[in-house]
Design brief:
By secondary structure, the protein is α/β, with parallel strands linked by helices. The chain has 25 helices and 19 strands.
Length: about 600
């Protein structure tokens, strides 16, 4: 059994949201897109610890802002009987239960024929004084403008209550059975050091240990009993100390008919719950306490404990583990190592959801299980990276293989951005952000746009993801290559991918990026001097004073390109540094012109 679909209404940034899940799902996306809110929504239904009960009682900030605003406008504009109070609802649809699980979810069937059950969280208005409340709000806003009225209308959060429901008819869920469906939510603010000590029944390690059957601890418990007997029968230090304490108690206290001043030492409580609280973890060759480990090391240990716990499934009907931002406190190398080794073998009693901001993790996890959350206007949507690909088709199979091999940490930035500029090589990757700063006085990061270098001409593999439904504005900067075998490539890209979402921009005056820079700037002497001085730093021997003097008067484009053809990254680096110095010293004097096709790409990305 696993949760295959989640439907959310009016919870935080989700006005109306639906996502399909897999037995192992990786969720990625930019900051503040709703990854944590999705896990929180699921925990409203599933989690059965003390904190979950507190969270189920929502606050105003937990209700979608747009839903509250719409409710207040309806009070202003509609008759009382037509005003509908917004509800927060989370529906979890589960499929493929085994025969044992069917006994638990027997009252929650949504589609019995297809073996789909539904259990839900509902937070709704429960007061019987709906009419009186609305009349009072109408009185409060009488004579006020709409803008003023909105501020005066109260939201009746104190009259809202939550319910846990199940099935197609929303029958009240039995708490006894609901507790059999467990969720471990490792949020991004987890305190590994605290949770890996079992000195409280609220700590993770204690909960995991206590999930084991009591008879599995019989050997430990028998040893505790023997230690307790040894303490009680000690004839050395403890017996002397026990006698001394009794003597002093005789002097300072009164004996009663039912008690005397005898005292006993004990090793520990022999109750299993108390024994488990004495168990801690050590990690490393030196076997030091986790209190002395670093945050990253303890975080790895924390994750390992959870993953190991998944395989202890006795007496469990279903467990969901939601791991938020496993990259916390971990270096990029360890992130990559962790993502490669997060393996999942399907089991009908467990499910895993991982959310991450890390390109290192996202690029190494399973693509077929990776879903991106993104904004489409005001709506939050989702898209599985390989959605729309049919691996039975040779072209699609080739693209999937390419992405699985080459979708590295750098290229994965496209899934954490709202806009992307795809470029062919390192020179464009270095210079395009500087060109944007040169033109607009702000960074591409400011508009949440990333430059993605495809290292060659493999644009189509990345653009297929966008074409298949991933709504992200994408500009492609490519060379015309009019003298090469690939001379028709740009036209083919335009024909296949040009749309209101994706646009292909091609060099207009020459066949390469570098030549386009030279051609665009050959008209003014100041511009020629600027580029010639850059070339002098790239290749001081070849581009000597005589060469630069020649460039000051006229550009020989082929000769210039010959200077940089094998030094493209060095040229880009030196030009970029020169432009950054210019921006700092004399931002109004800019002796360099950005090629038109690049400026057109900037306008497209900005929506102009």
């Amino acid at each position: 059994m696993y949760i295959n679909k989640v439907v959310i209404e009016n919870f935080r940034n989700f006005k109306s949201f639906e996502i399909e899940l897999k037995a192992f799902t990786i969720i990625i996306g930019e900051n503040n897109i709703g990854k944590s809110n999705l896990l929180e929504a699921i925990s409203l239904v599933l989690s059965n610890d003390i904190q979950a009960y507190k969270k189920r009682r929502l606050e105003i900030e937990d209700i979608n802002f747009e839903a509250i605003s719409e409710f207040k406008r309806n009070i202003i504009e509609k008759e009382i009987e037509d005003v509908v109070f917004p509800e927060v609802r989370v529906d979890l649809y589960v499929k493929e239960p085994n025969w044992d699980q069917e006994t638990v979810i027997d009252n929650w069937w949504y589609d019995f024929e297809n073996k789909i059950a539904r259990f839900s969280y509902l937070f709704s208005y429960k007061s019987k004084n709906k009419k009186q409340f609305l009349l009072r709000q109408k009185e409060n806003i009488s004579g006020k403008s709409e803008i003023e009225a909105i501020e005066y209308i109260d939201f009746p959060i104190e009259s809202y209550e939550f319910e846990l429901l199940g099935g197609v008819s929303d029958t009240k869920a039995d708490g006894y059975y609901l507790k059999m469906l467990k969720m471990d939510y490792l949020d991004a603010l987890r305190d590994a050091k605290r949770e890996l000590n079992s000195n409280s029944d609220k700590k993770l390690l204690y909960r995991i240990l206590s999930d084991r059957k009591e008879e599995k601890f019989e050997n430990i418990k028998s040893l505790i009993i023997e230690l307790d007997k040894a303490v009680k029968s000690d004839k050395n230090v403890l017996e002397i100390l026990r006698k001394d304490i009794g003597d002093y108690l005789d002097k300072i206290s009164l004996e009663t008919e039912t008690s005397n001043n005898n005292v006993e030492f004990m090793f520990s409580s022999i109750e299993l719950s108390e024994v488990l609280k004495k168990i801690g973890l050590q990690y490393g060759d030196d076997a030091i306490s986790i209190d002395r480990n670093g945050l990253g090391r303890n975080n790895l240990l924390y994750i390992a404990v959870i993953m190991a716990h998944l395989y202890e499934k006795e007496n469990e009907y279903f467990r969901l583990v939601a791991l938020e931002e496993p990259e916390a406190h971990i270096s990029p190398i360890l992130q990559r190592h962790l993502s490669i080794n997060i393996k999942y073998e399907y089991d009908d009693k467990q499910q895993i959801i991982v959310t991450t901001h890390s390109t290192h993790i996202a690029s190494y996890l399973e693509l077929q299980n990776t879903v991106v959350l993104y904004k489409d206007g005001s709506e939050i949507r989702n898209h599985y990276l390989l959605s729309g690909f049919d691996e039975k088709k040779p072209a699609d199979k080739k693209t999937v293989r390419y992405l699985q091999k080459w979708l590295n940490a750098t290229n994965s930035t496209m899934f954490f951005s709202r806009k992307v500029i795809f470029v062919e090589g390192i020179a464009e990757e270095i210079l395009i952000p500087i060109f944007y700063q040169w033109k607009y006085g702000e960074s591409l990061d400011k508009i949440n746009c990333q430059v993605v270098n495809v290292n060659g001409v493999a644009f189509s593999h990345f653009l297929e993801i966008v074409k298949n439904g991933y709504f992200i504005k994408s500009a492609v900067l490519t060379d015309s290559d009019c003298t090469k075998r690939t001379e028709t490539r740009a036209e083919e890209l335009k024909e296949k991918y040009d749309s209101n979402i994706t646009r292909i921009f091609v060099t207009e005056k020459s066949d390469t990026f570098e030549k386009e820079l030279f051609v665009t700037n050959k008209g003014k002497k100041a511009n020629r001097v600027y580029l010639a001085d850059v070339l002098g730093k790239v290749r001081p021997n070849k581009c000597n004073d005589v060469f630069r003097e020649k460039c000051y008067n006229a550009f020989d484009i082929d000769e210039l390109f010959e200077c940089v053809e094998k030094y493209k990254s060095e040229f880009a680096f030196e030009l970029g540094e020169a432009m950054e110095r210019t921006l700092k010293k004399s931002p109004r004097n800019k002796p360099f012109i950005i090629p038109k096709y690049i400026l057109d790409a900037f306008k497209f990305i900005m929506g102009d």
